[in-house]
From TrEMBL:
Role of this protein: May be involved in the degradation of misfolded endoplasmic reticulum (ER) luminal proteins.
Taxonomic superkingdom: Eukaryota
One GO CC term on file: endoplasmic reticulum membrane
Topological category with respect to the lipid bilayer: Multi-pass membrane protein
Keyword annotations from UniProtKB, A to Z: Endoplasmic reticulum, Membrane, Transmembrane, Transmembrane helix
Record-annotated membrane-spanning stretches: 15-48, 60-82, 88-105
Pfam families, alphabetized: DER1
Localisation per UniProt entry: Endoplasmic reticulum membrane
Keyword Transmembrane helix attributed: yes
Protein name as catalogued: Derlin
Organism: Trametes pubescens (White-rot fungus)
Example GO biological process: response to stress
Main location: endoplasmic reticulum
Amino acid sequence: MLEESSFANRKADYFWMLFLSSLMLLLLSPLVNLPFLSSPLAFVPIYLWSRRHPSTPISLFGLVTITAPYLPLALVGLAWILNGTWRAAAGDLLGCAVGHVGWFMQDVWTREMIGGPTVLSEAPEALKRLFGDI
């Protein structure tokens, strides 16, 4: 849903967000000793979507209904409960942290700070031309 709503007709920006997120995860992965980064990378778009759609209700297994901002934390808690150790959820928490940095740079910084868009919030012009977004 994130691709269809927030990044519709902005392929370069979506790629740039995933590329920067992958780079941040590679740099931060030694902190929690993660051998695989697919789960943390999957949490980045989940976190970004949940922050951009704060009033959307989400049903977890038909048992509990929460709003979208709590979805990443509920998934981290579920991973923690199912695996029995916080180490299992550490990668997902790292993905949430990287997603939070992405959300802050794309939504909060460009809207509320004086600086406006930066290279961390929008894809470079050359990448936009490569993807045909210009």
